[in-house]
Amino acid sequence: MKAALFATAVFMAPCITLADPLPSWGTSQSKDRIVAFVDAVTDPDNPDYVTPSDRIAVFDNDGTLWAEQPVYFQLTFAMDRLAELAAANPSILTSPTLEAAAKGELQTIAEGGHEALIEVLNASHSGISVEEFQASVTKWLDTARHPDTGLPYDQMTYQPMVELLRYLRDEGFRTYIVSGGGLHFMRVFAEDAYGVPPEQVLGTYTGTTYETADGTPTIIKAPGIAFVDDKEGKPINIERTLGRRPILAGGNSDGDFAMLEWTTAGHGPRLGILIHHTDAEREWAYDRESPIGKLVDGLNKGPDMGWVIVDMAQDWNRIYTGSE
Amino acid sequence: MKAALFATAVFMAPCITLADPLPSWGTSQSKDRIVAFVDAVTDPDNPDYVTPSDRIAVFDNDGTLWAEQPVYFQLTFAMDRLAELAAANPSILTSPTLEAAAKGELQTIAEGGHEALIEVLNASHSGISVEEFQASVTKWLDTARHPDTGLPYDQMTYQPMVELLRYLRDEGFRTYIVSGGGLHFMRVFAEDAYGVPPEQVLGTYTGTTYETADGTPTIIKAPGIAFVDDKEGKPINIERTLGRRPILAGGNSDGDFAMLEWTTAGHGPRLGILIHHTDAEREWAYDRESPIGKLVDGLNKGPDMGWVIVDMAQDWNRIYTGSE
After folding, report:
1. Does B264 lie in the same domain as B115?
2. Contacts of A162 (CB under 8 A, 6+ apart)
3. Which Pfam families does the record match to this protein (chains A, B) (predicted)?
4. Which of B184, B217, B258 is closest, CB to CB, to A262?
5. CATH code at position A221
6. In angstroms, rounded to a whole number, what is the distance separating the alpha carbons of residues A246 and A238?
7. Is the residue at A77 inside a domain?
8. Residues 6+ apart with CB under 8 A from B59
9. What whole-number distance in Å separates Cα of residue B23 and Cα of residue B163?
10. Do B235 and A219 lie within an 8 Å CB cutoff?
């Protein structure tokens, strides 16, 4: 019996080592290039070897790690929260924009542009402590369902990307999220959904204030946006927060262009990855003309800069973590 | 021979385990309380046990991890750098303030207040890439010497605090610097001096811009101060950057009060540590009346809040890392 167990152990060890770390990625050049890059930077005998402390990988969230159609999920949360707050206290709907938002009238918000968005965000995201805000996000994730898929939003993460994050960490990388999405919003689910702890989530943020009025110090979300973590804001935020240039960056839109550009322009081995939304059947197909996740520069310049352009329809066997 | 080696190994193991991790701390209540706290939060059988991911310790830098007299070391750097830049190009000294700074006339800068300080910082800290700026700090640390001690500035770190940082890390803590000092300035020496990597350094920062004018993306330090990491700014910056409340905080001035207050007001075991500069012989003695490192609230309220007040003269066997 003992001998049999020992034989099993010996037999299984190489199986575990050789198991495909990216089973949801089909046989593709994209997968081969990612694996070749990771193999190179983790092999001490390879001239491209990178010491673990510099193995930093950064990823956009909306459209890169989870879906972003028909509208950024955080905007849906904001409108749902506004509706909930208004049900208890209708007087908070102090403008036609807020009334429309509470009714879920996306078109009105879209037409109102940046100003309308800020109004909705202020009414739904500020004036409460970070803890209260995050509790409301948790509750929303537990109960809200996506109109098209019927899935909880945090199950519309991309299974191939969840595998990629885990694979990178298993290979000594630290994985960061660097997203235009809200910092406090994303931290609620990033650890469970992606294995990314709060201190490795970078995002857009409202200001906060430190209040001790009731004797207990509390950090309160203020209105307005203090920092937009998009476009050039992404490399700026990474440099400010990490003080290191990543060696791998993944995104899906022109909002990620500067982050991939800065990452891949560094010395030594670098990898840029763009997720191209090509799968109208299983997800959504959009790029150059889309108001959300617009991708023009990345498609025009990315291939010449050596970036991996992932064709979702071709390269991924599976899309969502929450459905086969 | 083998038996002897084995016996030596067996004999040495417990010695290593039992070696005092804080040899530069004398026999004192301060040391006992710190060790008791660490023992409690790292013992799985203790009700105060804290899981490693939550073992976050934050420390101010100036006056807590290294000295800050007769003037913040970064101001000395700024004036030295200005003098160096002016030697090559005198036209950069466009005001009496800058002329005084380049001559090292501290009194003039002090009298000029915040405005004079910003002028000196802008002229010495902006308009160059982060890499160029940090190279100038490295060079300064290699060559500049403190007027009183004759030591390189990065050897005027406090040996007892360097030991404390290492001890905490050995016990599964992550150690962060959260200082009013400049983020890009401190990152140059934090890893060598304290074992704190760049992504665990939080500080005051200038704005930065992302430039690709010459075809190579570069992050440039802009004039002005974008965020002051002092007073309420400290808990705000910690929450924003880490998304967690530390369980241990160390400081030395009222600029650290909010950080210690927020840290120690959290649920579960918490420790606040204030370094009280009581040693006029080996260092400097200052607190309530000092323009630098003013400590009033901490002395008045800290003891009742359970904070450890470290008496440098009594509690430390040794002061600087760079001298016995």
Report:
1. no
2. A65, A193, A194, A195, A321
3. HAD
4. B217
5. 3.40.50.1000
6. 8
7. yes
8. B65, B161, B165, B175, B176, B177, B178, B179, B249, B250, B251
9. 8
10. yes
As to burial, measured by CB atoms within 10 angstroms (0-12 exposed, 13-18 middle, 19+ buried), residue B321 is buried
For residue B46, give its domain range.
Answer: 23-69+156-315
Does residue B3 belong to any structural domain of this protein?
no
ipTM metric:
0.93
Determine contact: A129 vs chain B, CB below 8 A: no
User: Could you read off the pLDDT of A118-152 as tens digits, one per residue?
Assistant: 999 999 999 999 999 999 999 999 999 999 999 99
What distance in Å separates the CA atoms of residue A83 and residue B186, rounded to the nearest whole number? Answer: 46
Q: Which residue type, as a one-letter code, is found at position B301?
A: K
Look at residue B7 and tell me whether its pLDDT is greater than 60.
no
User: What residue of B is the nearest CA neighbor of A241?
Assistant: B199
What confidence tens digit (pLDDT) does each residue in B210-254 have? 999 888 999 999 999 999 999 999 999 999 999 999 999 999 999
A16 in a domain, yes or no?
A: no
Q: How many CB pairs under 8 A join A and B?
A: 73
Distances in whole angstroms, Cα of residue B249 to Cα of each of A115, B25, B68, B323: 40, 18, 19, 26
CB B93 within 8 A of CB B86: yes
Residue A305 lies in a domain: yes
User: Structure tokens of B42?
Assistant: 């790292």
Cα angle: B230, vertex B234, B238; to 5 degrees: 155
The residue of chain A nearest to residue B209, with distances taken between CA atoms, is A236
pLDDT, tens only, A47-94: 999 999 999 999 999 999 999 999 999 999 999 999 999 999 999 999
Question: Which H or E run contains B258?
Answer: helix B257-264
The answer, for A210 touching chain B at a CB cutoff of 8 Å, is yes
Torsion of Cα atoms, B214 then B216 then B222 then B227, to 10°: 160
A239 reaches B (C-beta below 8 A): yes
CA B263 to chain CA centroid, Å, is: 17
Q: How far is A1 from chain B (nearest CA, A)?
A: 33
- Do residue B119 and residue B184 come from a single domain? no
What is the reported pLDDT for B18?
66
What gap in Å lies between CA B55 and CA B245, rounded to an integer? 10
Joined together, the tokens standing for residue A171 give 């290979």
